[in-house]
Specification:
Strand order of the largest sheet: 2-3-1-4
Shape: elongated
Mean pLDDT: 83
Number of helices: 13
Strand content: 5-15%
Number of strands: 4
Structural class: alpha+beta
Radius of gyration: 30 Å
Helix content: 55-70%
Largest sheet: 4 strands, antiparallel
Distance between the termini: 14 Å
């Protein structure tokens, strides 16, 4: 039926790929860092408690700097930082905010005074910390007093919201401190960004693998037409994965992005078997004609058995304790099914 209705089959598969490719453009880039651990697990319970009750899990450091010594002895700068920190604490995404103004206020309260109102008071409060065995105040203000660090801890929020929030916080700090240099650092600015860059490389890096495989097939078959015939159908599993992950709303993580290159390599397996059988039948034929149906009958069972074996191997991941492993196994089994079906 497939060979007799090959035009209908080709149009159907092409339409299916077009739809899935259109859906796949909206991948979910809102991964979180600590949501893979099983619910009820000791490690997850600990992270959730820290995130909800102990000030947040994701550190974000804002460094606010001015090109003059002892700039952070200025009472106006300290007051502006205190007001800015108070605004941040009202944000539901923020777990805690600690800055040099909090340490200065602590000393002032011990002495029955308010936050420093003069440069001399600010310098005096900072000097008191230098008398301790470990000067913790210097973790927040540089020795020359030019730069201060505001330590913000955020809740474990999705990657896209984290990126937007960091940009917003930095912009608000630049507005609160005009003429000062503001820079953001910490896990909130790096981990999600690095994960997304890695995922993009893993997802779209299958083109390099496809190129290498195509070169090898061109040398084996000694035909560009046969190479194209082998390469193009194997894009179907990759396109399907894009659409399926977008429809399922699965957050893209490096462990999931690995599937694309693996699926491409597996899908080529049966393609090479079938094309090799077609080439053998053509060479044995006295007329040089190719019997596609005969190749199907000779290779179909072998492809089926290898697909079952591969799928059974990845089904083990579905019984995993971790959701990331379960997602990996699910999408790999789906990719194998699609990869075998398109052959």
């Amino acid at each position: 039926w497939v060979t007799k209705n090959h035009k209908f089959v080709l149009v159907s598969i092409g339409s299916f790929c077009a739809v899935m490719l259109w859906i796949g453009k909206d991948l979910n880039w809102s991964a979180r860092l600590f949501d893979d651990l099983p619910k009820g697990h000791e490690a997850r319970s600990s992270t959730e408690m820290v995130d909800s009750s102990l000030g947040g899990m994701i550190p974000l450091d804002l460094v606010i700097e001015k090109g003059e010594e002892n700039a952070w002895n200025d009472p106006e700068a300290i007051r502006a930082l205190d007001e800015y920190s108070a605004q941040l604490r009202k944000d539901p995404l923020v777990g805690s905010v600690v800055g040099p103004q909090d340490f200065l206020r602590a000393v002032a309260r011990v002495q029955g005074r308010q936050l420093a109102s003069t440069r001399q008071e600010a310098a005096e409060y900072g000097f008191i910390y230098s008398l301790s065995e470990e000067n913790i105040y210097k973790r927040f203000v540089t020795v020359d007093g030019k730069a201060a660090r505001l330590n913000i801890r955020l809740h474990d929020i999705p990657a896209d919201r984290m990126k937007a929030f960091v940009a917003e916080v930095t912009a608000r700090a630049e507005t609160a401190f005009p003429g000062w240099k503001v820079s953001a650092a910490g896990m909130a600015t790096t981990v999600h960004e690095l994960n997304n860059e890695l995922c993009v490389e893993l997802i779209y890096g299958f083109w390099q693998a496809l190129l290498v495989i195509s070169v090898v097939l061109a040398l084996v078959f000694r035909s560009i037409r046969w190479t194209i015939a082998a390469a193009i159908p194997n894009l179907v599993p990759v396109i399907f994965l894009l659409g399926a992950m977008a429809m399922g709303g699965t957050p893209v993580k490096p462990g999931i992005a690995l599937i694309f290159s693996i699926a491409l390599g597996i899908s080529f397996d049966n393609t090479v078997y079938l094309l090799g059988r077609l080439r053998l039948l053509r060479d044995r034929s006295k007329t040089g004609e190719i019997s596609v149906c005969k190749a199907w009958y000779q290779e179909g069972n072998l492809c089926l058995f290898s697909s079952i074996a591969l799928a059974a191997g990845f089904l083990v991941f579905l019984a995993s304790y971790f959701s990331l492993n379960q997602q990996f196994g699910f999408y790999m089994v789906m990719a194998i099914k699609i990869g075998r079906a398109h052959v």
